[in-house]
């Protein structure tokens, strides 16, 4: 029965990847993927009929985040154009800076290091958001609304059997394992992570172990999760902390006890001129700040990546359940 269950989960994961990659059959610039009606707050008169283009990134969490914004704005009465599932972070960023997109959701660490060109992250989440907010406002007139506590950063994970056999729960304990038995610490990762300063080389430096002694098979992200759950090729695997497959595959995530990895808090970003013209948007999207946590996002991501649900349905169901929109 367990093998059948795994096959079903794998097939569901493959289906979800296809759904996200194709934008659920929608073309960028299309309408909102599902109908929604106002929640108890009703339509916002100042926003009714105002055109807005919402952008987003082409991975599960990015697509879900885009739809959450789209549905809330549509329920407030705005005429929403969908540009979710843009190919890669840089595509979304360029669309926002050039005005092709008015609004979307972005990660503080990504903006700070990838867009604004800083070499070192700010370790404190609030200070990182403040630094990004000030720099992006000054350089690009991009406004950062207050962040959620969603922190989609890097980590390593292992299956339950490895956790019990090694006793490893933190990266400091992982480093001890590397020093005592590097072959027991075989760690699978993406090519990019293996060379990034905020990836494998920096991790080894901060935690004080010799990276060269550890076997590090290079794999695609989706394969890493599955291989780590099995545990034969990967005792440990690089993961994103809010990925639904972490919970779906019952993986144990290591604690970054020295806070090495950058903070990647999810927040709404808006073109300054657009927010000045329509300041009511901030109040419409304010509920997301308190509602979106790592635990919530893992559940939403899992419904897509593990259970094979449509990300648009997942986003709308969540907002309906929270009483923020009606199903249209």
Automatic annotation (TrEMBL):
<protein>
    <submittedName>
        <fullName>Glycine betaine ABC transporter substrate-binding protein</fullName>
    </submittedName>
</protein>
<dbReference type="InterPro" id="IPR007210">
    <property type="entry name" value="ABC_Gly_betaine_transp_sub-bd"/>
</dbReference>
<feature type="domain" description="ABC-type glycine betaine transport system substrate-binding">
    <location>
        <begin position="51"/>
        <end position="319"/>
    </location>
</feature>
<dbReference type="Pfam" id="PF04069">
    <property type="entry name" value="OpuAC"/>
</dbReference>
